[in-house]
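U., I forgot to send this yesterday:
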Amino acid sequence: MKNDILHRLTAARPAHLDPDRPTPSPVREEELATFTARPRATRTARTTARPRRAGRSLVPALALATATAVAAVVITDAVPQKPGPAPSATSGSGSQILLAAASHVEQQPAGSGTYWYVEEHLGSFHKVPGKNYTIDDRTEHRYWAAAAKNKRWSQSLDLGARPATKADEAAWKADGSPTSWNVEGGETFTYAGKGEIQRDAPGGTGDTFKMGDLPLRVLATLPTEEQALRKRLFALVDKDYNGPKEILDRIVVDTAIQLATTLPSTPALRAAAYRLLAAEPGVRSLGDVKDHTGRTGYAVALPSPYGPVEIRLIFDKATGMPLGTETVATRDGDGMRKGERQSYTTITSMKWTEKAPPFDTDTEDPGPISAPDDAPDPEPAR
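Result:
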């Protein structure tokens, strides 16, 4: 049975989405889209104290999808045996750049192993109220996927917050170098961080995943021609969601970004996802860029369906493999300035491995994060 979007929106809408409350437009638009397009399985997933904030897709994501400022890291097993010449990221449209990246990435060795492992560092930026600086809240996410068994594991580590730039660091020191900050919305971030904040194993109480995630067993059945891939993804989305075409199209793009970045896609499937994204309206080239760790790549920007931000995808120049993502404001207003980064993800490892996840149970469920007298939404009949 499909999810009824209007019913779920009415039942699940948080108080700050009430039309009479002055919620910033990007927050309203993103949460509206999320609540109207969330699959049934996530209704029973545990809500953690620190949800993924990356502007995906994402998400997370993509994303999907809080990096520590470490030295440049090379994506494990992502270098081709015989790399071809890198496309010129400074000439050509965003579509041409994605098509060139697709040509490179489909030449990568497929690899094999029991587990697909991805490690991402994520960051979200928060202005400190009453102070003249911004902090970078950092989280490390680790994912394992056993595609043959259709199982996933995930682990999240709170790495703490830091001043976002050198200028922010100087302002922070002038403020007395505090080690905790209360930001807008009432959330508190600390310099030390909390360490592990979530561990999710198959069959546990969490089983959380990003909006638009595909069952792992489906990946091997997806076509590797971009138009056929779009059609198949839309059919899969339409089967699980009940909403207008424009929202389903958003989820298709979110899913394609996950296929292009962190899911265990074959080189041919990853290239097809690149080509699907190359056909998106408004895609543009950003030329040569550096990711958050200082690695040089080239990037394209896609309009975000969730408010006045754009999603930037960064690729390795030699291999076409993904390095990470960013979300950037496209206009002034609601506490944002045009061109200001809102969040980022950096992929620091992505490989097949025989090494199993180091846990097989969930983090203890902290219980619902809601008012004591708030009853959870009932599970609709199927």
